[in-house]
Amino acid sequence: MATKRLCMVGAGRVGRLHTRSITEHVGHRAEVTAICDPSREIAAELAADYGVGLVCATLAEALERGTYDGVVITTPTFTHHPLALTAIRAGLHVHLEKPMAMNLVECAEISGAAEAAGIALQLGFMRRFDSDFVAGAELLRSGEIGDPMIIKSLTHGPGLPPAWANDIRTSNGMIAEVNSHDLDTISWYAGSEPVDIHTRVANFKGAQRGVVTEHFYDTLVATVTFESGAIATVAGVCPADYGYDARVEVTCTAGMVQVGHTGPGGPASIVAGTALRGEAVYRSWRDRFADAYVREMVAFVDAMDGAPLRVGAADGTRAVGLVLAGTLSMLEGRTVTVAEVQAAGFVPAWQTRTGQ
Ligand SMILES: NC(=O)c1ccc[n+]([C@@H]2O[C@H](COP(=O)([O-])OP(=O)(O)OC[C@H]3O[C@@H](n4cnc5c(N)ncnc54)[C@H](O)[C@@H]3O)[C@@H](O)[C@H]2O)c1
Q: Which contiguous run of DSSP H or E holds residue 61?
């Protein structure tokens, strides 16, 4: 098969990660042939690092100046909707980073366009490609340990994300930026649709880090119930400072499974008594999920060749529904059903700025 030509949209943290995965690990099956970012300097630097020939300011410019089989969209969440639509309407396959979009209207438009165009739309939930997380899902599906009763999922990120991600108007806040992964994992593991969510948040470090954005929080606990009766908790801390931490525990009717660990040495406690133990701790999502990010890009190339998607628009949309209901719960201090935010006419009132 001919080498797939990919356009990398966004040259920030994730754009760099995916460019490296494709260039160094996907082999002859795909290459990044263009990078676009309004910050030409960042795009040019990334292109120079990985030998990419074309640097553009916008996706529109990249479409004028080159031809592609697919795009990898790694831009801030509020830009996902217009960029995904542009790529899909150009007939290109799309890997779209999480969160899929800012709201469910945008998700529906992206999903509808992808279906109509017959292109592959993969969502950036890399835990779906991590061997531990996949093994956990397979054990749960096997029925060997019964049905999930309680699912406890956490993601603690090391440092503050980029400024746009700290603002609920442009990102939907930490529940979207950090805990989207948990919202996807609990739904995947429950094997059931979410019914409602109750979110509580706190802000321990924002002021000392100079974040004064309204509604900023760095700590979150959400409770989600599922149609199956399973109950899940999602915990988030960012910045956690001690490292990157992603773990899940599922208690089932006939057993339990734990997935994830704090360092490359396997399960470890970071603090034992009062003394730090010597195990290495994952510093970033980049090292914790390094293999998964590579498999994710390989899976995208497979999907371009017709293989079934492992994680797609329905999963992205479900997570955005929980993000919206969870944010409304945080703002109004009550349990919010997913049906409430799915209702026609629901407007996330805190989003004053979407699309760009
Ligand atoms: N899957 C994961 O593990 C993971 C981890 C971190 C972030 N993300 C997601 O990836 C996306 C990007 O996050 P990031 O941390 O790389 O952000 P970032 O701010 O580091 O980089 C985003 C880049 O996109 C560029 N950009 C903005 N608008 C653009 C446009 N219209 N066209 C092209 N480029 C544009 C910006 O100039 C910036 O360089 C977000 O959706 C985020 O939630 C995913």
A: helix 59-65
